[in-house]
Each structure stands twice: as C-alpha cells, then as structure tokens.
Design brief:
Bound molecules: 2-acetamido-2-deoxy-beta-D-glucopyranose, magnesium ion
Number of domains: 1
Structural class: alpha/beta
Oligomer: single chain
CATH class: Alpha Beta
CATH superfamily: HAD superfamily/HAD-like
Shape: globular
Strand content: 5-15%
Order of helices and strands: HHHHEEHHEHEHEHEE
C-alpha cells in the first residue's frame, strides 16, 4: 500500500504540474497482485454501485480501487460529475414558482457537497478513504478551516439565492467545531444562510434519523423544502426529504 501511494502521489504531482486533461484512468497495472483480496475488482462498477446505493454499509475504499478513486477525485471527471448535478438542480429550481414569502428553502449538506475535504483525503495517511478513518486527525483538519469549495455547488448556491431560495446548511459536523467550520464556509464563498444546523450534544441516532428530525422541525416551522442536496444517501432518505433530492458523488466514504 505504501509503495503504491508513493507512485500515486508522484503521478498526481505530475498531473497537477502539467495541467493535462485528466479523465478517470487507471495507473499501469501493478506488478503482481500480492495482498489484494479481489485483484479483478472493477473499480468503475464499484463506484457506480456506491453512487446508486446498491452497495451499502461499506467501511473503506477497497485497496484495489484506492488509486482509481484518487485519480477520479483529483481528475476532471469528479468535477464534471458535480457540475452535472448542479446544472440539473438549477434547471429544476428555475422551473419552480416561489411564493416570495421566504419559506422556500434549499437544504445543502456541507462535507463533500458544498465544501470539499479533498486536501485532507489526498494525504498519504488517508489515501482517499482506503485507510481507516482517524477522528483525531480529521478534527485537526476541520480546525484548520482549509476545506475548498466544490465549484458547481458554489455556483448553484449563488444561483438559488438569486432565484429567491433561502439556504439551509444541515451538517453532521459537531457543534463543538462550529467556529472553524463557519469561518471556512464564509472564506470559500458561502456567506449567507437562513439556518446553519450542526449536530449538537443532544442530537442522537443515525445520520438518517438526525437529518430527518431536523428537516421535520424545519417543515413544522413552516418552511417548504424545495430541494435537498447531499453526497450521502443518508442526507436524502428518511422522512421530510423535500420535493426533490440531488446526489453529488462521493466514492471516499459511507455514512449510514
Ligand atoms: C409557474 O407559473 C407559470 C405562470 O403562471 C406557469 O405557466 C407554470 O406552469 C408554473 N410552474 C409550476 C411548476 O407550477
Ligand atoms: C490519528 O491522527 C493523529 C493526529 O494526526 C495521530 O497522532 C495518530 O497517530 C493517528 N492514529 C492512527 C491510528 O493512525
Ligand atoms: Mg457530506
């Protein structure tokens, strides 16, 4: 694994430096398949299964697909996929007739939906989700407030505001780190919102339960959830899911 990643990082550095078009592509096959559990695993099929939620409750990107996921995330395809979702969302949003009473809301998740943690996931110790999650390291990363905007989502955010939607950020991020998180969001262009809901110490249950509960509260307060966008299916299923949901890609981790 370590050696594989040295090669991957060297390749990525070269790719960034030369700015060459970088569609999803596999590295040259590694010599031998020692240590790989499923050397014939088709990573493209794996990623499709993840995005469609045919594959559930997975914990790590398979070793076999770590390089593939790295190339996908840092290459043009990930950006194109995100842009495609955002464009479809905008077409839908534009078609709606808003009442103008300020109650039409659009819910955005944060991590890997509006803010990308890619600088963190590209680290050797994280390996695009192929190595076990380290909450200490991730919390330190959040404190850095160095996440980057997902361009398509930021554009959509601005378009929605222009159309008259109110924005609600609903995140599983803990209330305890709200300061660096909110600072990070403002720095990358998400400067206003109707509500910014973080997970408090009294919020229990699974992600689906937590997010459903918060959406229910919003509807009970008179808001109409016209759109709901997230990178995890747990952002988009459960109850009070909104009129329409939009899934942005995330092959790096699964939150149930
Ligand atoms: C919005 O209003 C226009 C004009 O009244 C109407 O033609 C259109 O069908 C409405 N769209 C929706 C989605 O209700
Ligand atoms: C998790 O991250 C912390 C902070 O970077 C590091 O000190 C620790 O060794 C890591 N734990 C594991 C199991 O890798
Ligand atoms: Mg997320």
């Amino acid at each position: 694994m370590g050696f594989t990643f040295l090669i991957l990082m060297a390749t990525l550095a070269t790719t960034f430096a030369s700015q060459t078009p970088n569609q999803i592509h596999l590295l040259m096959p590694h010599s031998g398949s020692g240590g790989l559990k499923h050397p014939d695993l088709n990573c493209n099929s794996w990623r499709l299964a993840v995005e469609t939620s045919n594959l559930k409750d997975w914990t790590l990107v398979p070793d076999e697909c770590a390089d593939y996921v790295g190339h996908y995330m840092l290459g043009k395809q990930y950006r194109a996929d995100c842009d495609f979702v955002a464009n479809e969302a905008y077409k839908y949003a534009k078609s709606l007739n808003l009442t103008g009473d300020g109650k039409d809301i659009w819910i955005f998740d944060i991590d890997e939906t509006t803010l990308s943690n890619l600088p963190y996931y590209a680290r050797n110790s994280v390996a695009f989700g192929a190595l076990p999650y380290n909450s200490t390291a991730f919390d330190l990363w959040v404190a850095e407030a160095a996440g980057v905007a997902i361009p398509g989502s930021l554009k959509l955010y601005n378009q929605l505001i222009e159309l008259g939607f109110k924005i609600v950020f609903l995140t599983g991020t803990k209330q305890a780190v709200s300061e660096p998180r909110i600072r990070n969001m403002k720095n990358i262009g998400y400067t206003k919102w109707e509500k910014f809901i973080l997970k408090g110490t009294n919020d229990h249950g699974t992600a689906v339960q937590y997010k459903s509960g918060k959406r229910k509260e919003l509807e009970e307060a008179g808001y109409r959830i016209r759109g709901n966008m997230g990178d995890q299916w747990s952002d988009l299923i459960g109850t009070n899911t909104g009129d329409r949901t939009f899934k942005v890609p995330d092959p790096m981790y699964y939150i149930g």
